[in-house]
Amino acid sequence: MRRFVVMTLAALLGAAAMMGVRATSVSAHGEIAQEGFVRMQSVGWWDVKFSKTSLAQNENLNLTGTAKILETWPANMSDGNPKICYFTVIEPGARFVLVDRKINGMEAPQSFFCQKGDVYNFNMTLRARDPGNWHVHPAIAVKESGSLIGPGQYIDINSSPDGFSFPITLLNGKNIDVESYGTWLVLGFSAVTLVLGMWWMLFWTVPGGRKRTITRLRVANELPLNQDGGPAVNLITKSDHRQCELIAGVTVALTVVGFIWASVHYSGNIPLQVDWVTPPAAPAQAQLTSATASNAIYDPSADTLKVITSVTNTSKSPVTVNAFRTGNLTFLNPSNGLPHGDYEFQMKVSPQEPIAPGATQDVTVTIPGNVLRQQELLPLGQAQYVVAGVLELADSNGNRNFDTIQTSLNPTST
Amino acid sequence: MATATPTIDLEALRLREIAERPYKFIDRKWDFMFWVTAGFVVGAAANITHLLFAGDWDFWTDWKDRQWWMTITPFATIIIPSALQFIQWRAWRMPTGATYTAVCLFFCTWIGRLLQWKYFINMPINFVWSATWIPAGIITDLVLLKSRSFILTALIGSATWTMAFWMSNYIMMLPYLQPTSFMNHTLTVADVQGIGYIRAQTPEYLRIIEHGSLRTFLQETQYVSLAFGTTLCVFGYGIGQFLGRKLAVGPIFRYLKQY
After folding, report:
1. pLDDT confidence bin for A340, thresholds 50/70/90
2. From 2.60.40.1580, 2.70.40.10, 3.40.50.720, 1.10.10.10, which CATH number describes the A289-411 domain?
3. In this predicted model, what pLDDT tens digit does every residue of A88-114 receive, in sequence order?
């Protein structure tokens, strides 16, 4: 007995210790666990912006940006033809509540129909819920493939004295707080059913110490399965029947009355909705160039990846390479500004001179290998030696052009 | 006939004497230990079966639809109660298997919801509440008590299990089926919960809920689902009986016969 008490106390202490541990901060969301070539070929991200990095509970944060389902989408994912997508946010639990989501200007509360090669400008409004420092990413989930994660940002949520609320108005005009709506009914009714269940169980196990359990086996063994011996054997008495009828009667009455009450009180209900939309096409992008990658060379000694692309300037202005975007990383041409955040890095562009109108020129971008290795974006030893991404070029007027490129990865020892 | 009745009465009296005998070494502590320790096993078995077959429908309000939730969940959750009904009736003539399982499952699911979902990741409990099977368990146990027949319990009890599950849980679900306008779309409160409280790796399109079809049976999806759910539930009850008879009680008796 003493040992039982000690073990019970130890278990309770362990449980109490566990209660003191909360998932307070998660800084990674598994994005680098996905194979590099999959991330590079599937979705391109650009212009991802968080409107704030610090806000109070109940304040809104806008998360905007562009995601493109690349023409290089892998054939082994969604049969090479993504159809159903869902813009979401990757965060450690529901620290923000999503209150609005627009795709190419259209409200999209649920999933949307998508296709390879399309560009989606997203705008998600997030209402701050849980105080803390949270790492937040946009993501696009694609049916039969999974979630592909964009660049992230740490956001501080400061507590508000009023706590969090999620107000909406029902179609009947009633204002509710989604955070707590109906909780009393769920907890109350569940508790009542527990009382009924315990009543039934306690009646059959401990009514005044008369009912035994284990010792009934010897008698039950001698009775046919569909007999209980009746009052003579006294395993199940008339009083047992009456008591069980009472408990079951109360249960049925409670259920029926509760059902009728809820049906009247919450009248006008509708089934769960499936509301998938087809967003309009994104505003047409500038078509300044066409680009075709011809080779990607990884040099282990220099620890660099060189992507060689043939670029034809089809516009009337000179264009320069602004950036190369792959996975959720952006590599910037130093002449186009300094990197910001955890997902932007520098690269070298050669030649640096602009490409003249009508000219075709090989452009080499040199990317630091350590960044790619850290992000598991160098697919060495993986099933596909491929490099893909979006090459961003721009003219002097600020018009930007995004070309999807893909080529084989060729490691070299020279 | 004149001699048969006293024989039966004597046999009944003998059994009654055995049933009411004060055992010296098998006291009530054993009963208590049995019910409490078995609770963990039964709760875990019921919860695992439930999670394997119908987990997501019970995790979120925006999965608790009128087509799949009512069809899958009663089937998935009657398997262990059926096995326990057989075991407890066979061993002790106690009509407690379904209620006992429902109570154990209640504790398992609610401890999980409160600790894992509410406390650790702070999901609102009104979004992740667990269904209750206790009313269904009580009524199904009453059917066994009155009928003393597993065939009748399979036929009638499965129907009452499905109906009681539906009615008792719809009491809690109805507030979340109230319509609202959210992002300029008409949605239920449950839909709003599913959109607002972000489940990072459970995108909306994964929901297996009613999407509609041409086979609408005069649009009475709910009642068709209940009828189909009841039929499936009879099948689930049979699976539970197989588990109880062949995998639980059977091996015990085979083992005992060796000695």
Report:
1. confident
2. 2.60.40.1580
3. 999 998 999 999 999 999 999 999 999
> How would CATH label the architecture of A23-172?
Sandwich (2.60)
Question: Residue B118: which domain range?
Answer: 35-253
Q: DSSP states of A125-137 as a string?
A: EEEE-S-EEEEEE
Task: Give the confidence band of A413 by pLDDT, cuts at 50, 70, 90.
Answer: low
Measure the CA angle with vertex B86, ends B85 and B87; round to 5°: 95
Averaged pLDDT score across all residues of chain A: 91
Output the pLDDT for position A264: 96
Chain centroid to Cα A103, Å, comes to 17
In a domain, B213, yes or no: yes
Q: Where are the domains of chain A?
A: 23-172, 183-265, 289-411
pLDDT for the residue A207: 63
Task: Give the pair of three-digit tokens for residue A114.
Answer: 């998508």
- Cβ within 8 Å, pair A204-B95: yes
**Residues in A 184-243 with any Cβ partner in B closer than 8 A:** 185-187, 189-190, 193-194, 196-198, 200-201, 204-206, 209, 212-220, 222-223, 225-230, 232-236, 240-241
Question: B81 vs A195, B68, B99, B151, CA distance in Å?
Answer: 19, 21, 8, 15
How many domains would you assign to chain B?
Answer: 1
User: What does the buried/exposed string (b/e) look like for A153-184 if buried means 16 or more CB atoms within 10 Å of the residue's CB?
Assistant: bebebeeeeeebbbebebeeeeebebbebbbe
Q: What's the ipTM?
A: 0.92
pLDDT < 70 positions in chain B: 1-8, 24, 26, 216, 218, 259
